[in-house]
Design brief:
CATH topology of the largest domain: Nucleotidyltransferase, domain 5
CATH superfamily of the largest domain: ATPase, nucleotide binding domain
CATH architecture of the largest domain: 2-Layer Sandwich
Structural class: alpha/beta
Length: 370
Amino acid sequence: MPLYVGLMSGTSLDGIDAALVDIAEDPSIPARLVDALCLPLSDTLRDGLLTLTQASRIDFTTLAAAETALCEHQADAVSQLLTRHALSPKAITAIGSHGQTIEHAPDGTPPYTCQMDNPSLLAELTGCCVVADFRRRDMAAGGQAAPLAPIFHQAVFGHANRTRLVLNLGGIANLTRLAPDATLPVIGFDTGPANLLIDAWHARHRQGPIDIDGEWAASGALDDALLSRLLEDPYFQQPPPKSTGRERFHLEWLDQRLDGKERSADVQATLAELTAVSVARAARPFVDAAGTDLIVCGGGARNRHLMQRLAAHLPEVAFLACDDFGWSADWLEAGAFAWLAWRRLSAMPGNLPEVTGASGPRVLGGVYAP
């Protein structure tokens, strides 16, 4: 079957995820994950990208340098994946590249979304066809341009008899509702921060960017007053369609809600609880008494403490592993963009208007020949 590569660099800014995916021309045959890898970002590149996401003014030379460095990193990830399987670039039908989101403002005037990417250079460096710029066509049609993965979730996880919720715990958490009744729409939206604030607070106070297994959060005590202040942000009450990112939820946002007397470990515990509570509140209206499964993907799925808190808030839900469906929690998002590249080359819509709020289905992405 044709092979595609999906590239994803998410809000967490931890690395380039590259997924090699086998996709048949027949839509009834499910896509199959062949292999995947994560190529970590260098500290210099990560810090440069983080600075760009927080800059009020951007120097275009700096922007171009960072974009080129990111593209070279993407090409390296593709090269390593192909070398692993002794594949030539001609064996890849297309690369689906999401790019690195710098700013996402679907409710701006005018609405805009900016993904740092250079698909022309990526095609040159890899010798592969590249499909990129997936988001702006949906936004041009009046949509939020995010999340885009729910249409892929529908193809991979849909079930005829049970409601399924797919939760991606990346930097931002997003939730997809798949109903067994085909007449009901797929629902998908960003619930709020997942790992973004947890990682940023850990990086400020501890060695390293990740609270492994949520051990530091588990050592702290929940600050109920702080949690209440965090949950007062209007985004948590806003109905879907909605999407968000680092431009709204960041350390300065958190600092404005601290009174300065909190223990750092207690803040970490409270940030983990913020993710668990905001996800649970968003999911609860879609829990079906006849049976509901929750499939968790993204880096947060490896955070033991966070998963325990989610289970405590959603005891009526059955937690399923992505691995049960032939997909790793780490590579589902990258796999989605390989699949969206296939949709683009097949001239099939890549968005769900009921999810993004677009005026109709749209074929997403531009094609860059090798």
